[in-house]
Every structure is written in C-alpha cells, then in structure tokens.
Amino acid sequence: MQLTGVGVVMLLMGVFAPALSSVLRSIAFRIRASGKAELVRAERESGGRAVGERREARRGPHD
Hints:
Low-confidence stretches: none
Number of strands: 0
Shape: rod-shaped
Order of helices and strands: HH
Number of helices: 2
Structural class: mainly alpha
Mean pLDDT: 81
Strand content: under 5%
Radius of gyration: 23 Å
Distance between the termini: 74 Å
C-alpha cells in the first residue's frame, strides 16, 4: 500500500484531530475568559459597578 503526501496528511489529521480540537477549545476558553476579565477591570477602573453587583441588584435583597 502506497501512501502519497496527501494520504499521509489525511492520516495524521485523523489521528491528531481529537487532541487538536481539545487544544483549540481550551485556547478559545482562555481568550473568552481574558476578555471578560478585561471588561470587569475596565468597569471597576471607570467607577462603574462590577458585574457581580449588577447580578445581586437584579435578584433583590436576601433575608
């Protein structure tokens, strides 16, 4: 059985696709988390209420 360059690439992609998918999901999660943290820091520096405080205000007082 002869494997051409395309066949080798396809075989390697099939073998490494699950691991690559997991790595890409992890990278995307970290980018989203970094963006959310940056928004929270910007709100706090500008004097706005933090995201957590808004959520508590919507829920109302806890007795």
